């Protein structure tokens, strides 16, 4: 299903070049349910901010969605809502090459191959294969080096961390040609209930000093805004992309007045009035992140199609 992409549906590489140049981070928001794509786009448009709409392989499975269904809803909303800000459609954490191929076919403009649990050389080989495949089709690639912990196991299987080694990062990027690198430097997927979030700024700076690749921070939910602002503003280029998933789901479920997550099908069957409440809560959460956390409000002005 090849969409004629609007000129402002862009690759991750293009989005992060703008982030870095103009000193903000682009939020990578996981709606998790197709009806929740709408409030993410509305918030980005309202705030005149670039945005990334993403879903991971595990989320596709857990919520019962195909890459094609997600992409179809994304493109439909981009058009029906007259979205004018630059947006990336991104496949987050994925280990399956088949899912990556399906996403690219469906119109995703960026994919993430996560072979971070493999030995370094194997991670490089798998990542390079994806880079060759995706780049040939005009699609950006994000990879991961080190291991990012988790608190909710939606995106990853394990909760142990292995911080990214700066020298390895240099070697990895040179060998793979990736456009963006998710680094492990203290944040975790999910919401922090036990340990305090922390960011190893010295490590981030050391990685950035050795490689020009755009840096991604997974586990943006629950990190204090001033901590994130410092990571974004590091001299020579700090973090350009921040993933936010759990905070959106909590906002959505809070808006619905429930705690149990739904399947995508259940979400589509919600009473329209109730769904609107959930959507309003997500739109408000995304707008708040854009303005107070990412520093990307008003930054869409820098994009020229």
Automatic annotation (TrEMBL):
Q: Where does Zn(2+) 2 bind?
A: 114, 144
* Any one GO molecular function term: aldehyde-lyase activity
Q: Which cofactor does it need?
A: Zn(2+)
Coiled-coil positions are none
Active-site residues, as the UniProt record annotates them: 92 (proton donor)
Q: In the UniProt record, does the keyword Transferase occur? A: no
* Annotated keywords: Metal-binding, Zinc
Which residues of the sequence carry a binding annotation for Zn(2+) 1? Answer: 93, 189, 218
Q: Which Pfam families match?
A: F_bP_aldolase
What's any GO biological process attached to this entry? carbohydrate metabolic process
Protein name per UniProt: Class II fructose-bisphosphate aldolase
Top-down, what is the taxonomic lineage of the species of origin? Bacteria, Bacillati, Bacillota, Bacilli, Bacillales
């Amino acid at each position: 299903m090849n969409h004629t992409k609007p000129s402002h549906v862009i690759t991750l590489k293009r989005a992060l070049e703008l982030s870095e140049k103009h000193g903000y981070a682009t939020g990578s928001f996981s709606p998790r349910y197709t009806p929740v794509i709408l409030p993410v786009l509305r918030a980005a448009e309202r705030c005149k901010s670039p945005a990334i709409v993403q879903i991971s392989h595990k989320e596709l499975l857990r919520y019962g969605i195909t890459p094609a269904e997600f992409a179809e809803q994304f493109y439909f909303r981009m058009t029906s809502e007259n979205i004018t800000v630059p947006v990336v459609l991104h496949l987050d954490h994925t280990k399956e090459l088949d899912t990556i191929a399906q996403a690219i076919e469906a119109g995703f403009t960026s994919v993430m191959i996560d072979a971070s649990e493999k030995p370094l050389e194997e991670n490089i080989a798998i990542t390079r294969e994806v880079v060759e495949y995706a780049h040939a089709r005009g699609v950006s690639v994000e990879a991961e080096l080190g291991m990012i912990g988790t608190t909710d196991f939606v995106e990853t299987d394990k909760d142990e961390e292995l911080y990214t080694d700066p020298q390895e990062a240099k070697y990895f990027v040179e060998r793979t040609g990736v456009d963006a690198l998710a680094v492990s430097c203290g944040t975790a997927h999910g919401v922090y209930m036990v340990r305090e979030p922390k960011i190893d700024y010295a490590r981030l700076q050391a990685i950035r000093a050795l490689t020009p690749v755009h840096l991604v921070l997974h586990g943006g939910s629950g990190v204090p805004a001033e901590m994130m602002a410092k990571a974004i503003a590091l001299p020579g280029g700090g973090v350009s992309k921040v993933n936010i998933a759990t905070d959106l789901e909590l906002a959505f479920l809070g808006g619905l007045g429930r705690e149990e997550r739904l399947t995508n099908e259940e979400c589509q069957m919600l009473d329209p009035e109730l769904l609107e409440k959930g959507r309003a809560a997500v739109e408000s959460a995304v707008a708040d992140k854009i303005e107070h956390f990412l520093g990307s409000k008003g930054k869409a002005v820098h994009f020229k199609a």
